[in-house]
């Protein structure tokens, strides 16, 4: 296994030139380069141009140490229309600097009662970035399926505020993240599911106030068990 695979990068077009440790994190310097494609707009021939200024892309921790990728992306220029195009990679969305691995890690940490401030510190991103990513999470809410066993929890969302998270207890798959933990918000969300769907829920685990037992009992009539 090569170095890029060890740090979770599976793009063969990313070539690492230097890896070193600082007092706070591991830094990786690399370039993204591949043969010039045809320009998709005018189908003209493109030539290799230069490299962009390095993008700072946070990666997952390595041995518990925050890791940062400084990636230079190749630019191409069309010989026909002179327009410029930049190389793309699957590790980060176009025009973004937060890797998809970090986005997935944020989703995971939501289920571990990690505050957004601590998430930002661990992942080498700003707190506002974590807030934006939480706001951007979308769930395929068709309201036609719920697990037999659910897990309810809360986490620090903003200073002095808590959000609500529900997930499949057996698979840890997120069901929803609500921006507050008020009972009426939770109840109104789950009442979007048909009664026959809610009746399939038999157990709910929660590390929250016992007051939520009333909310869950009203929403899930066949779920008398809470842990």
UniProtKB/TrEMBL annotation:
Domain Transposase IS204/IS1001/IS1096/IS1165 helix-turn-helix: 88-136
InterPro entries reported in the protein's UniProt record: Transpos_ISL3, Transposase_DDE, Transposase_HTH, Transposase_Znf
Residue ranges occupied by any Transposase IS204/IS1001/IS1096/IS1165 zinc-finger domain in the UniProt entry: 40-81
Domain Transposase IS204/IS1001/IS1096/IS1165 DDE: 153-222
Pfam annotation, one family: Zn_ribbon_ISL3
Domain of life: Bacteria
Transmembrane segments: none
Protein name in UniProt: Transposase
């Amino acid at each position: 296994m090569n170095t890029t695979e060890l740090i979770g990068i599976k793009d063969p077009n990313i070539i690492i030139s230097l890896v070193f440790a600082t007092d706070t994190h591991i830094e990786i310097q690399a370039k993204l380069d591949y043969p010039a494609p045809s320009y998709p707009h005018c189908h003209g021939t493109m030539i290799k141009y230069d490299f962009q200024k390095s993008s700072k892309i946070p990666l997952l921790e390595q041995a518990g140490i925050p890791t940062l990728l400084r990636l230079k992306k190749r630019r191409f220029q069309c010989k026909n229309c002179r327009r410029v195009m930049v190389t793309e990679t699957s590790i980060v969305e176009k025009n973004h600097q937060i890797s998809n691995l970090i986005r997935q890690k944020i989703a995971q940490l939501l289920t571990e009662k990690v505050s957004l401030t601590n998430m930002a510190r661990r992942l080498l991103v700003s707190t506002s970035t974590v807030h934006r990513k939480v706001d951007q999470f979308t769930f395929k809410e068709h309201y036609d399926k719920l697990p037999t066993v659910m897990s309810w929890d809360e986490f620090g969302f903003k200073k002095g505020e808590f959000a609500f998270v529900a997930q499949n207890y057996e698979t840890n798959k997120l069901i929803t993240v609500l921006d507050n933990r008020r009972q009426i918000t939770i109840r109104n969300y789950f009442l979007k599911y048909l009664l026959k769907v809610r009746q399939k829920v038999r157990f709910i685990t929660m590390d929250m106030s016992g007051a939520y037992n009333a909310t869950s009992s009203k929403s899930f009539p066949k779920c008398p068990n809470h842990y």
